[in-house]
Amino acid sequence: MNRISELRKKLGLTQTRLGEEIGVSQQTISKYEKVDENISGDMLLALSKFFKVPVDYILRKDEEEQQREQDNKREIMELYRDMDQYNRDTWIIIGKRLLGGQLHKYNEDSIVEKRLKE
């Protein structure tokens, strides 16, 4: 969850209501909350004033959160490097399923069949 979502929920606001308060649509608020969208300077200032927080607070994760994220990435890469190709393929399939994504690059059946033949 990003800072905009966090701040909005703390105030008990819907995306629609926040959009009305700062003059944008609910879809725009949703976009800002889902991705690290390039938010204009004017919009950052409006959000900063509305939530009564510094612009930096909206843009940046705190140091502890950044460190935790870096540690997790490092651990994931170490685990991945230690795997054989079969387990790497399997891990990617499972990860995509956990994220609710579609399998575009990998055809799960062909990977499993290929491994069974080996």
Automatic annotation (TrEMBL):
Which keywords accompany this UniProt record?
Answer: DNA-binding
Keyword ATP-binding attributed: no
Q: Where is the HTH cro/C1-type domain?
A: 4-58
Domain of life of the organism encoding this protein? Bacteria
* Annotated GO MF terms: DNA binding
Protein name listed in UniProt = Helix-turn-helix domain-containing protein
Which species? Blautia obeum
